[in-house]
Amino acid sequence: MAERKPNVTQVDPVWSHIREEAKAAVRDEPLLGGFIHSGLLHHATFERALAYRFSLKLASGEMSEQILREIADEAHAEDPELGQAARADAVAVYDRDPACHRFLQPVLFFKGYQAVQAYRIGHWLWKHDRRDLAYFVQMRVSEVFGVDIHPNARVGKGIMIDHAHSIVIGETAVVGDNVSMLHSVTLGGTGKEDGDRHPKIGNGVLIGAGAKILGNIKVGDCSRIAAGSVVLHEVPKNTTVAGVPAKVIGEAGCAQPALNMDQLIDDGI
């Protein structure tokens, strides 16, 4: 009889790794056993764990954990891309954040990661014309995590938001895949105009702390925005911009700045 091959759809290396880390964490710190079991080990799938975390963090006197859990479970069941994006984000944080040593850290402890996963549920609600629920999720994410992402904004996979204090991403903003940003970043408009009014961030972009990118402008793939910059004009791909207002000061310095996370500007530039 031929040996039966494993079903590739049942292989989930990220979730398997998180569970092994969780078991080790319980052995190392038994006082966190209840917290880790309820947050991770109690759940059969990564999606169920994410839904539990979503409901636990965003519940309030206005909306119960049970209702939020049902919303998140429905979203994950209907759209498998939510779970795939969450896995890509977890890998991104692990790879790029030097303070992250285990995959379970962003899921349990990092508010930037948790805020992005909650935004993804809000975006799913928005796409299904459940606008008021989407606004509720946006409100609670802002209140709990200090991260304000409009549910109509489009955010790609492999996102890493380090520290995540005071992040603002406007209604018509687009963020590509494999983008890294630090705290106090704003992707905003320039006034009270309606319509398409927010930045379009390409793939592989690194956005430094405190940077403000304003207006319906394009930031090219694999570019770097220096910390504290105010960007008002289009940024060519593979370049570094800095200053107030920001100007091109040279090339990006590497092929993938969002992955490399090098924020130093060469004195020779």
TrEMBL record:
The EC number(s) this enzyme carries: 2.3.1.30
Pathway: Amino-acid biosynthesis; L-cysteine biosynthesis; L-cysteine from L-serine: step 1/2
CDD domains: LbH_SAT (cd03354)
Class of enzymatic activity (EC top level): transferase
Ranges for domain Serine acetyltransferase N-terminal: 14-118
This protein's UniProt keywords: Acyltransferase, Amino-acid biosynthesis, Repeat, Transferase
Molecular function terms from GO: serine O-acetyltransferase activity
Stored Gene3D superfamilies: Hexapeptide repeat proteins, serine acetyltransferase, domain 1
One CC-aspect GO term: cytoplasm
Transmembrane portions of the chain: none
Xref: PANTHER family: SERINE ACETYLTRANSFERASE
NCBIfam families named among the record's database cross-references: cysE, EPS_EpsC
Protein name: Serine acetyltransferase
